[in-house]
C-alpha cells in the first residue's frame, strides 16, 4: 500500500476528509478491487461506531464489497467482524457527504493506557485513561502505553518522542517503541526518519537514534517498508537516507508483553478517592451506623422526604450485612467478608463523597463495584439495580446512572434523557465485577463507558478497547458528591467493594486477579 492511499484511508476513518478527498476515495473504492482489499485490512471503526449489532451474513458482505450499491447502515452500529466493519465504513464514507462540514471537527484518536514513573517533555502531562488528540507526545523518562483507536498499541520506553497523526498513523522522532497491531488493527503506519513502516498484522520494535538511523525488529507477522516486506525474525538497520545498512542486526529487542512485565505494573489503591468494603459482622444495622471505608463525608443514610421524587419512601429502613454470599474466582476480599444486601422491594441508600466529581473541567473518574443479582433468571423474576451519582446542591439536577434493568440488560443513563444499553445481559444469581469510566471536558462532550466481568473473565492491567456500553456527547458541569445504590423488584441484590478513583488501576483488583 502506498503512502497516499494509507493517508487517505486514515483520514476517512477519522472523518477528516475534505470534499475533494471524499470524491477521490469514492472513485478509488468503486473502481479498484485491490484498493477495496487494502481497505479491508486497513480500516478500523472503533472511532466511528458505538454499539454492536448481530453478526452479518458473510456472503452478503462479499457481495457488498463488489457491488456499486454499497450497504448503508447507521453510524451508531458497531460490528462483530472486520469484514463487516469495512462494508459499513465504505457505506459511511459514501453517505458522509451529508454529514461532514466544510472543516471536520477536531477529535481524539488514542488513549493513554499506562504510565509508570513518567516524566514528560511537553507542557502538559497526560494521565492514565486520558484521551489523546493529534500532536506530539514526548516521554523523557519512564514507560507508557498508548492505544490508537484503530487498535494498534505502542509501548514507549525512556526518552521517546512520537507524533500522533491519526487513529492508524504515528511518526517516531526518536526513541524506543514496540508496536503491537493484532488482528483487526492491520495497516498501522509508523513514520520514522528512515522511512515509513506499514504493519501487516504484526508486532515489531523500532529504535531511532537522534541521528536518524533506525533499527526494525520484526517479532511477528510482517512489516512493509517501501517495496520490501520484512518478516518475523528479521532485524534491519536503516540510515536516515532510507537505505538498508545492515540486514543482520542482532535480535535483542524485547517484545511488548516483556516490556510491560519489566515495568512491574501494580495496583494503585493509594490513588483511590473513595472505598467501601462493608467490613462488618453479619446482621442488621441502621444506615447511620455504617460509616467505614475511606473518602466519605458521612455515613450511609436513607433519602430525605425532599429526595423522594415520584417514587415515594423506601420499603425498608435498615441495612442488611450478609456474609460469604458472593462467588468470584479471583481471590478478592470482597464477597468473603461483609457485603451489603439490598432486599426485595424499593431500596435506595445514599452516601456523600468527601471529594466530589467535578464535571465542569477536564477529568477522568472510574467507579467499580461487585454485585450479584439474586433474581431467579425466569421470566417472572424481575429486579433492577443501579449506581447513581448526583449533586447534593441540586439533587434532581445532572445525574449519571449505571446498572441494569429488570431483564438484566445493562444500561447507562443521564438525567437529560440519554440512554445506552448493552447486548450482553447480567447473569442471574452470579457475581459480576462492574466498572465505569467517566470522562469530563471543559470544552467538548463528556463520556461514560461501562463494562462488566464474569468470574471466568480475566482482568488486564489496561482498560478494555471494547466496552459493553459507550455513551458520548453529553455536556455536564455538575459537582457530583452523592453516591446512591438503588434496587427495585422482587429479589435481592448484593453489593460490595465500591471503589472510586482517577485511573483503571486505582479501582481494579489487578494484584489479586492476575496472581
Structural summary, described in words:
With 515 residues, this protein is mainly beta. It has 8 helices and 28 strands. Strands 1, 2, 3, 4, 5, 6, 7, 8, 9, 10, 11, 12 and 13 form a 13-stranded mixed beta sheet that branches. Strands 14, 15, 16, 17, 19, 24, 25, 26 and 28 form a 9-stranded antiparallel beta sheet that branches. A 6-stranded antiparallel beta sheet has the order 18-27-20-21-22-23, with no helix packed on it. The longest helix has 13 residues, at 19-31. The model is unreliable at 44-105 (pLDDT under 50).
Summarize the structure.
This protein is mostly beta strands and 515 residues long.
CATH architecture of the largest domain: Sandwich
Radius of gyration: 25 Å
The count of domains is 3
Strand content: 35-45%
Output the structural class: mainly beta
How would the global form be characterised? elongated
Which spans have pLDDT < 50 for at least 5 consecutive residues? 44-105
Task: Return the CATH class of the largest domain.
Answer: Mainly Beta
Largest sheet: 13 strands, mixed
Give the beta-strand count: 28
Binned, the helix content reads 10-25%
In round numbers, the mean pLDDT is: 82
Number of helices: 8
Classify the fold: give the CATH topology of the largest domain.
Answer: Jelly Rolls
CA-CA gap between termini: 43 Å
Amino acid at each position: 500500500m502506498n503512502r497516499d492511499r494509507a493517508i487517505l484511508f486514515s483520514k476517512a476513518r477519522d472523518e477528516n476528509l475534505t470534499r475533494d478527498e471524499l470524491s477521490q476515495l469514492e472513485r478509488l473504492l468503486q473502481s479498484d478491487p485491490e484498493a477495496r482489499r487494502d481497505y479491508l485490512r486497513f480500516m478500523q471503526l472503533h472511532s466511528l461506531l458505538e454499539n454492536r449489532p448481530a453478526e452479518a451474513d458473510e456472503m452478503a458482505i462479499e457481495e457488498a464489497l463488489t457491488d456499486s450499491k454499497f450497504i448503508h447502515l447507521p453510524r451508531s452500529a458497531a460490528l462483530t467482524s472486520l469484514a463487516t466493519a469495512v462494508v459499513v465504513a465504505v457505506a459511511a464514507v459514501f453517505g458522509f457527504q451529508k454529514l461532514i462540514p466544510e472543516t471536520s471537527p477536531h477529535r481524539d484518536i488514542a488513549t493513554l493506557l499506562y504510565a509508570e514513573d513518567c516524566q514528560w517533555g511537553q507542557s502538559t502531562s497526560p494521565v492514565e485513561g486520558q484521551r489523546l488528540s493529534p500532536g506530539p507526545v514526548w516521554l523523557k523518562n519512564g514507560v507508557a502505553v498508548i492505544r490508537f483507536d484503530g487498535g494498534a498499541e505502542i509501548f514507549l520506553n525512556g526518552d521517546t518522542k512520537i507524533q500522533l497523526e491519526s487513529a492508524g498513523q504515528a511518526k517516531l522522532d526518536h526513541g524506543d517503541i514496540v508496536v503491537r497491531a493484532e488482528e483487526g488493527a492491520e495497516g498501522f503506519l509508523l513514520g520514522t526518519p528512515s522511512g515509513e513502516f506499514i504493519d501487516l498484522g504484526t508486532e515489531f520494535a523500532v529504535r531511532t537514534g537522534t541521528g536518524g538511523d533506525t533499527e526494525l525488529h520484526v517479532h511477528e507477522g510482517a512489516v512493509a517498508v517501501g517495496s520490501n516486506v520484512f518478516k518475523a525474525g528479521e532485524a534491519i538497520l536503516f540510515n536516515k537516507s532510507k537505505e538498508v545498512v545492515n540486514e543482520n542486526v542482532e535480535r535483542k529487542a524485547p517484545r511488548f508483553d516483556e516490556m510491560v512485565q519489566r515495568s512491574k505494573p501494580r495496583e494503585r489503591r493509594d490513588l483511590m478517592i473513595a472505598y467501601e468494603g462493608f467490613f462488618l459482622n453479619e446482621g442488621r444495622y441502621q444506615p447511620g451506623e455504617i460509616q467505614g471505608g475511606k473518602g466519605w463525608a458521612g455515613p450511609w443514610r436513607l433519602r430525605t422526604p425532599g429526595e423522594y421524587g415520584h417514587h415515594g419512601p423506601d420499603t425498608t429502613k435498615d441495612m442488611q450485612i450478609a456474609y460469604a454470599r458472593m462467588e468470584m474466582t479471583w481471590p478478592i476480599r470482597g464477597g468473603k467478608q461483609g457485603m451489603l444486601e439490598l432486599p426485595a422491594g424499593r431500596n435506595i441508600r445514599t452516601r456523600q463523597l468527601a471529594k466530589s466529581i467535578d464535571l465542569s473541567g477536564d477529568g477522568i473518574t472510574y467507579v467499580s463495584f461487585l454485585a450479584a443479582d439474586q433474581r431467579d433468571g425466569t421470566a417472572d423474576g424481575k429486579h433492577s439495580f443501579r449506581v447513581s451519582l448526583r449533586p447534593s446542591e441540586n439533587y434532581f439536577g445532572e445525574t449519571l446512572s449505571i446498572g441494569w434493568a429488570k431483564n438484566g440488560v445493562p444500561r447507562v443513563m443521564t438525567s437529560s434523557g440519554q440512554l445506552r444499553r448493552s447486548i450482553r445481559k447480567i447473569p442471574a444469581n452470579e457475581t459480576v465485577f462492574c466498572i465505569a469510566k467517566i470522562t469530563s471536558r471543559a470544552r467538548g462532550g463528556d463520556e461514560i463507558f461501562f463494562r462488566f466481568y464474569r468470574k471466568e473473565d480475566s482482568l488486564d492491567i489496561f482498560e478494555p478497547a471494547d466496552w459493553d456500553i459507550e455513551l458520548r456527547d453529553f455536556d455536564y458541569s455538575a459537582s457530583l458528591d452523592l453516591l446512591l445504590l438503588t434496587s427495585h423488584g422482587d429479589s435481592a441484590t448484593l453489593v460490595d467493594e465500591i471503589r472510586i478513583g482517577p485511573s483503571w488501576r486505582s479501582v481494579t483488583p489487578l494484584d489479586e486477579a492476575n496472581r
